[in-house]
C-alpha cells in the first residue's frame, strides 16, 4: 500500500484505538481545535490582505509593477480566505450535526433507562389485583355516599320525631 493511500485511510490514528472510532467528545474537541486554527489563519490572511493593499496604494502610479505584484498577492490571499470560509462553514455544520447526534443519543439512553425503571416499578403490579382494588374503592365510595345522603336527608329524620 502506498504512503498516500495509508495517509488518506487514516492508518491507525491515536483516537480510535480499536474501539471503532473516536468518541463524540473527542471528535467535537478536534473539530473545535480545527475551527480555532482556521480562525487564526483567517485573521492572519486578513492582515496580510490589508498590508498588500497598503503596499499597492503606497506604490500607486510611481511603481506600477510593485503595485500590481501587491494586488496579485492580495488576490491570492483573498482566494485562500474564501476557501477557509467554506471549510469553516463545513466544519461548523459537521460539529453542530455531531452535537445534535450526541444529544439525541443521550436522550435515547435516558428514555431507555426510564422505561426500564417503569418496568421494574410495574413488575409487582397485577392488573387483576388493581381491578379488584378499584372495585373495592368504588364500593366504599358508594357506601360513604349512602351514609352521607342518609345523614344529610333531614326530611325523613324530622318525620320520625313526634312531639
TrEMBL record:
The entry's protein name is CHM4C protein
Q: Name one Pfam family in it.
A: Snf7
The family classification in the record reads: Belongs to the SNF7 family.
Domain of life of the organism in this record? Eukaryota
Instruction: State the Gene Ontology BP annotations.
Output: late endosome to vacuole transport via multivesicular body sorting pathway; protein transport; vesicle budding from membrane
**What membrane topology does this protein have?**
Peripheral membrane protein
Keyword NAD among UniProt keywords:
no
Q: Where is this region: Disordered?
A: 1-25
UniProt keyword list: Coiled coil, Cytoplasm, Endosome, Membrane, Protein transport, Transport
Amino acid at each position: 500500500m502506498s504512503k498516500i493511500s495509508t495517509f488518506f485511510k487514516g492508518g491507525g490514528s491515536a483516537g480510535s484505538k480499536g474501539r471503532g472510532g473516536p468518541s463524540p467528545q473527542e471528535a467535537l474537541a478536534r473539530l473545535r481545535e480545527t475551527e480555532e486554527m482556521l480562525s487564526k489563519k483567517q485573521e492572519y490572511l486578513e492582515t496580510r490582505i490589508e498590508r498588500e493593499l497598503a503596499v499597492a496604494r503606497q506604490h500607486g502610479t510611481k511603481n506600477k509593477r510593485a503595485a500590481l505584484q501587491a494586488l496579485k498577492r492580495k488576490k491570492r490571499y483573498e482566494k485562500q480566505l474564501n476557501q477557509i470560509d467554506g471549510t469553516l462553514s463545513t466544519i461548523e455544520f459537521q460539529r453542530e450535526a455531531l452535537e445534535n447526534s450526541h444529544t439525541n443519543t443521550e436522550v435515547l439512553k435516558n428514555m431507555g433507562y426510564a422505561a426500564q425503571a417503569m418496568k421494574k416499578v410495574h413488575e409487582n403490579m397485577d392488573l387483576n389485583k388493581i381491578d379488584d382494588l378499584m372495585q373495592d374503592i368504588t364500593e366504599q365510595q358508594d357506601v360513604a355516599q349512602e351514609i352521607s345522603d342518609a345523614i344529610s336527608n333531614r326530611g325523613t329524620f324530622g318525620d320520625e320525631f313526634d312531639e
